[in-house]
Amino acid sequence: MRIRYNAPVTLTFALLATTVLLFDTVTRSNLTLLLFTALPRGNFDFANPLAYVRLISHIVGHLGWEHLLSNFAIILLIGPILEEKHGSLRLLWMIFFTALVTGLVNTLFFHTALLGASSIVFMMIILVSFTNVRNGDIPLTFILVVILYLVKEIILITAADDVSQTAHILGGICGSLFGFGGGRSGRTAAEPETE
C-alpha cells in the first residue's frame, strides 16, 4: 500500500497555506501581511508588481491556525471531489478566478485588508452541489446550499466582525457560475457515467 498525491491542486494549496503560516509563526516575519493579504481601497500601488500578486495570493494567507484549519478542513474534503470531476487545471483556474474577483472587489470597494481562503471554500461548497447535474435540471442540493450559506452571509453582512461576508458571497457566486457553466468531467470516454 502506498500514499498517493491524489489531488495535486488541493493538496498543494493546503501545503502552501500551511507553510506560509508555519513560517510566519516561527519567524514572526509578518510574511502573511506583506505578501498574502489583498490591500484595502486606497492602498493599491499600481507601480508595485507585488500589489497585483496580492490580488490572488491573499487566499494563501491566514490570521492563525484556527482560521486556516476551518478553511482547509472543508477544502480538503471537497477539493478532491471537484478535482476528479473537473480536472486539476480547471479547478486551479476556478480558484485563480475566484481569488482575483474577491481581491479586486475588496481593493476597489472596501477599506479593510483581505486574507484567507473562505471565498474558495464557498466557491467549492456551491460548486460541489452541482456534482450530479443533468442537462436542464437545477439540483435541489444547490438550492438548499444557497439558502443555508449565502442567505446566512447576506444576513451577517452588517455584523461588526472581522469576517468578509462579501468574499464568501462572491465565492458562492463564482461557484454558481462555474456550476451552471458546466465543465468537463474528469472521466474519460472509456469511463461512462452511471445512473
TrEMBL record:
GO BP, one example?
proteolysis
Protease in keyword set: yes
Question: Where can this protein be found?
Answer: Membrane
Domain (Peptidase S54 rhomboid): residue spans on this chain: 52-181
Q: Does the keyword NAD apply?
A: no
Could you list the residue ranges that cross the membrane? Answer: 52-79, 91-109, 115-133, 140-160
Q: What is this protein called?
A: Rhomboid family intramembrane serine protease
Q: How does it sit in the membrane?
A: Multi-pass membrane protein
Q: Name one GO molecular function term.
A: serine-type endopeptidase activity
Q: Which InterPro entries match?
A: Peptidase_S54_rhomboid_dom, Rhomboid-like_sf
Q: Which PANTHER family match?
A: RHOMBOID-LIKE PROTEIN 11, CHLOROPLASTIC-RELATED, RHOMBOID-RELATED PROTEIN
Mind listing the UniProt keywords for this protein, alphabetically? Hydrolase, Membrane, Protease, Transmembrane, Transmembrane helix
What GO terms fall under cellular component here? membrane
Coiled-coil annotated residue ranges, if any: none
